[in-house]
Amino acid sequence: MDGRYSEETATATPWSDAVAWLERAELFWLTTVRPDGRPHVTPLLAVWQDNALHFCTGPAERKAKNLATNPHVVLTTGQNTLREGFDLVVEGKAVWERDEARLRRLAAAYEAKYGPDWHFDVRDGAFQHDGDRAVVFRVAPTAAFGFGKGVYSQTRWLF
After folding, report:
1. Biggest alpha carbon–alpha carbon distance for the chain
2. CATH topology for 3-158?
3. Distance from C-alpha of 120 to C-alpha of 97, rounded to nearest angstrom
4. Mean pLDDT throughout 2-29?
5. What GO cellular component term, any one, is given (predicted)?
6. What is the mean pLDDT of residues 38-53?
7. What is the pLDDT of residues 67-77, one digit of tens each?
8. pTM above 0.90, yes or no
9. Region 17-44: what's the mean pLDDT?
10. How many CA atoms lie within 13 A of 159 on its CB side?
11. Three-class DSSP labels, 31-71
12. pLDDT value of residue 60
C-alpha cells in the first residue's frame, strides 16, 4: 500500500478482492498507443479468465492497429464516484489469443457475463458474430493498482 495516497486507517486490498472486482466489472477502458505515440482510449467489454483480462476487437479497428505496433496496454475499471467504490488499473502486454479451445471457453464466458447478445462462434482463430470477425487479446497483468474510496487507499500489485 502506498501511504502517500492512503489514509492512516486504510489497509492494503488483497489481490483476491481485486480479482473479484475484475470478474464483476462490466465496462473497461482500454488505453493503447498509436504509431505516432499519441494515446488512444476506448470503452469495451472484457472477461477475467486464466489470470488475465481478455477483450476482442475487429482487426481493422484503431485499437487492433495500435496493438500491431505496440502491445503495451492499460485497462481501467471502477466507479465514477468520489467517495465510494473501488477503481482498478491493470498494466500489461496484449497478446493475440488464437487457440480455439481457449477461445471457445472465452466465448462462453462472454455470453455468461454479458448475455445472449454477446454470443460468439469460434472459427479460424477468432470470434465470429453476425458475419463479423473479432480478434481476441489476452492481457496478463504486469502491474495493477487499486484505489479504494470512502477510506482512500492505493494498493499496488506487481507480477
Report:
1. 54
2. Pnp Oxidase; Chain A (2.30.110)
3. 15
4. 91
5. cytosol
6. 97
7. 999 999 999 99
8. yes
9. 97
10. 14
11. EEECCCCCEEEEEECCEEECCEEEEEECCCCHHHHHHHHCC
12. 95
Residue 7 predicted with pLDDT over 80: no
Average pLDDT score over residue span 86-101: 97
Q: Rounded to the nearest 5°, which phi and psi values hold at 24?
A: -85, -25
Cα 157 to Cα 109: distance, rounded to the nearest angstrom: 25
CA–CA distance, 72 with 33 (Å, rounded to integer): 8
| CA separation for the pair 122, 128 (Å, rounded) | 6
Residue owning grid cell 498507443 = 33
Q: Do the bridges between strand 72-77 and strand 86-97 make them parallel or antiparallel, or are there none, so unpaired? A: antiparallel
* Secondary structure (3-state) at 14: coil
Whole-number Cα distances in Å, 132 to 48, 73, 122, 126, 147? 23, 24, 11, 10, 37
Distance from C-alpha of 67 to C-alpha of 147, rounded to nearest angstrom: 27
Are the C-beta atoms of 88 and 76 separated by less than 8 Å?
A: yes
Three-class SS state of 116? helix
pLDDT at 86: 93
pLDDT band at 99 (very low <50, low <70, confident <90, very high): very high
